[in-house]
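Dear support,

We are seeing what looks like truncated structure output for some complexes. This example has two components. We would appreciate it if you could run it in full and send us the complete token output so we can diff it against ours.
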Amino acid sequence: MYRKTFDGMNCSIARSLDQVGEWWSLLIVREAMLGTTRFDDFQSRLGIARNVLTSRLNSLIENGVLERVVAEGSEKRCAYVLTPKGKALYPVLVALMQWGDQWLGHEAPIKLVEHSTGLPIEPVGPRVGERVLALHEVRAVPGPGATEKTLESIEKRNRAILGEG
Amino acid sequence: MYRKTFDGMNCSIARSLDQVGEWWSLLIVREAMLGTTRFDDFQSRLGIARNVLTSRLNSLIENGVLERVVAEGSEKRCAYVLTPKGKALYPVLVALMQWGDQWLGHEAPIKLVEHSTGLPIEPVGPRVGERVLALHEVRAVPGPGATEKTLESIEKRNRAILGEG
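Here is the complete output from our reference environment:
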């Protein structure tokens, strides 16, 4: 059923969710970004069933988000580490974290600062220069991969969000 | 099972995914950001089963991401629109879109520009000033909501990612 979306929509968000949008997948990526590498550690820290964890790890490996390597100091054990493609999901997770901190009514458990300076990270979001732009301050335009359907979506989007006739 | 994570981890990412991390939820939010408001339009554009769509819409409404309003021009029809909390998910979706454009081997269907100037949106991500910082350039520090477990996670994270003894 999901593939229908993927094929029909020609949308980078749908395609991204196709690779990391399953329940648990982004939590596994988050765990990897917290330094977890071993199957048993993912399992106990997430409280996830072993068969589900195996299936999610395998699909993240297939999609090139994680890779399985021999663990340091033990040739018998394997470790799961983020690939460059996996590390590139960091902005998605920071955006989710900031949204949670702002909207879910709890105090932030973790703050992020620049390692070299200690300066706090600014709000993540689409920007031109200093300010993060809101949904209605951004216009969609066709990219090189646009299809007829994309053009329709873009027109509908700009009409609805920007209030254009 | 999932609640285990939520309770044990005290993590804004887990809590955010608890509200919008189900399969379909972020695609529904994306549709709403493309201007879709009617049940039948969500249904046909996403190719999602009606019962699943109903369940996802209800949980997005319960979580304050969408609200159900009377459709303009028809008192009998209802429309689903984003709340301010829902619109605040825009950075998450833009981050997923940029990741897809960069890593999924297709040409970008849509480009985003600032509405008022036409200038292209910059890469979304954690930054201090001009440059988007990578995972290993960011340090985690305790926030006001940190627990003992958070402190352990932070230490482990900085040791693993920043290579600190």
